[in-house]
Amino acid sequence: MRGVYKAFGENTVLRGIDLDVHRHQVVVLIGASGSGKSTLLKTANLLEQIDDGQIFLQGEDISDPRVDVDKTRARIGVVFQQFNLFPHLTVLDNVTLANRKVHKMPKDQAEQIATDLLARIGLGDKLKDYPDRLSGGQQQRVAIVRAIASKPELLLLDEITSALDPQLVGEVLDLVTELKADGSTMVMATHEMSFARKAADLVVFLKGGVLVEQGPPEQVFGDPQHPETREFLARVHTVA
């Protein structure tokens, strides 16, 4: 991202964001509600059109108005805090849908990929179940598997644990840790500071749409350079 601005009416939500995300890197966005984290992720996936600046994916300017939005989104996986599974489709059909319809993959190949991934996260016996038969943690894990089944170049995760009961948060974060070990490239907004400290390669602190501070977790959490960062971390009780 280079000089990215985004406003909704009179409310400027992103104010000149400059951010580099490297391949196989996990970038974690932290900050209070309303700091711009979700909007940043939505602009990265072209769900929101930016007002100024540029966004590049593998060197291609995807913020150019002439870009094929659907083709670009097909390269990016997204998981939101609400699971957004299709209630009328089984777990297997939810996971295979994009590969079959968007990427034109043969059904048996798409189902093999989905079956392997679901078995790996302990949901191999839920293929024929509908989402309302699953716990919140199970639904969110299915949503993540759906996002990674097409091997996206970039995975965006927006507060994926905030709608979960506390006892289910761990199982979802364990899956994200596995994806990190597999070399996925991720940008993740979260309120889970202990997880950010453990999983991030780069921590980015946003306040009022401004990128205030960024650095490795040991620096941002252990020795924050800016008063705003120190104040935020003191408020969430995670200063080292």
UniProtKB/TrEMBL annotation:
Residue stretches making up the ABC transporter domain: 1-233
MF annotations from Gene Ontology: ABC-type amino acid transporter activity; ATP binding; ATP hydrolysis activity
InterPro entries: AAA+_ATPase (IPR003593), ABC_ATPase_HisP-typ (IPR030679), ABC_transporter-like_ATP-bd (IPR003439), ABC_transporter-like_CS (IPR017871), MetN_ABC_transporter-like (IPR050086), P-loop_NTPase (IPR027417)
Transmembrane spans: none
Subcellular location: Cell membrane
Superkingdom in the source lineage: Bacteria
Membrane-topology descriptor: Peripheral membrane protein
Main location: membrane
GO CC terms, sorted: plasma membrane
Entry keyword annotation includes Heme: no
PROSITE patterns found in the cross-reference section: ABC_TRANSPORTER_1 (PS00211), ABC_TRANSPORTER_2 (PS50893)
UniProt similarity note: Belongs to the ABC transporter superfamily.
Protein name: Amino acid ABC transporter ATP-binding protein
Native source species: Humibacter ginsenosidimutans
